[in-house]
Amino acid sequence: MKKIFIMAFALVATAISTTTFAQGTKMVGGAAMYSTKDIVDNAVNSKDHTTLVAAVTAAGLVETLKTDGPFTVFAPTNDAFNKLPEGTVATLVKPENKALLTKILTYHVLSGKFNAADIVKAIKAGKGTAEFTTISGGKLSAMLQGSSVVLKDENGNTSTVTIADVNQKNGVIHVIDSVVLPK
Fold first, then answer.
1. Share of the chain above pLDDT 70, in %
2. CATH topology of domain 28-176
3. Closest alpha carbon to 75 in 136, 160, 144, 154
4. Which of 72, 127, 132, 140 supports an S-S bond with 114, CB 3.0-4.6 Å?
5. Res 132 pLDDT > 60
6. Is the pTM of this model over 0.90?
7. How confident is the model at residue 16, as a pLDDT?
8. Which of 100, 104, 85, 116 is nearest to 153 (CA)?
9. What pLDDT, on the 0 to 100 scale, is given for residue 20?
10. Contacts of 150 (CB under 8 A, 6+ apart)
11. Dihedral of the alpha carbons of 140, 180, 34, 67, in degrees to the nearest 10
């Protein structure tokens, strides 16, 4: 009887876990991203975003990204930061460069929640390109390449969304493969 109860409990737990996962929880950097957690509480669990989390902490943006928002965050992976010239990240996280780091990080954030479908709709309405104003005040363009959303920064550099629609309690994250930079 005890064995049957344990097996039944395990089946119920698996069913609950599968249902929760099926309702929009995505895996990013080996960790589940729960729509019941905020952007920061999810990002700290992604092994692919340790550089981003360290930069957000150094810039003093943790509390901002824990507020109600909503925010749309284009989240560069560690590999995206590694594409920058050697020593760039180490220089940016120094206290004397906090203003520049903040400008770069907030260039990756939009006020409001824009799911991939919203971005694609704006691209189509803009006849191939949509322009968004970031929290830093800069402009970020979006376009489609095949079925992928590609961002273009103010310098003409591009970044591709590799994982879209990672819903958060206070917005949405889109994982990107390159850091975008303001002028």
1. 87
2. FAS1 domain (2.30.180)
3. 160
4. 72
5. yes
6. no
7. 35
8. 104
9. 39
10. 142, 143, 144, 158, 159, 160, 161
11. -70
Amino acid at 76: P
Question: Is-cis flag, bond preceding 70, omega within 30?
Answer: yes
pLDDT at 109: 96
Instruction: Write the DSSP symbol of residue 127.
Output: T
Q: For 114-131, how does the pLDDT look when each residue is reduced to its tens digit (9 = 90+)?
A: 999 999 999 999 999 999
Question: Rounded to an integer, what distance in angstroms lies between the CA atom of residue 133 and that of residue 107?
Answer: 9
8 A C-beta contact, residue 164 and residue 149: yes
Question: What whole-number distance in Å separates Cα of residue 88 and Cα of residue 71?
Answer: 26
Residue 61 CB neighbours (<10 A): 18
| pLDDT in the model for residue 80 | 96
Residue with tokens 């189509």: 124
| Phi-psi map region of 50: left, alpha, beta (phi>0 left; psi -120 to 50 alpha) | alpha
Per the listing, tokens 């550099």 go with: 157
What are the sequence ranges of the domains in the chain? 28-176
- Give the model's confidence band at 8: pLDDT under 50 very low, under 70 low, under 90 confident, else very high: very low
- Percent helix, strand and coil across the chain, each to the nearest 5: 40, 25, 35
The stretch 166-172 carries a mean pLDDT of: 92
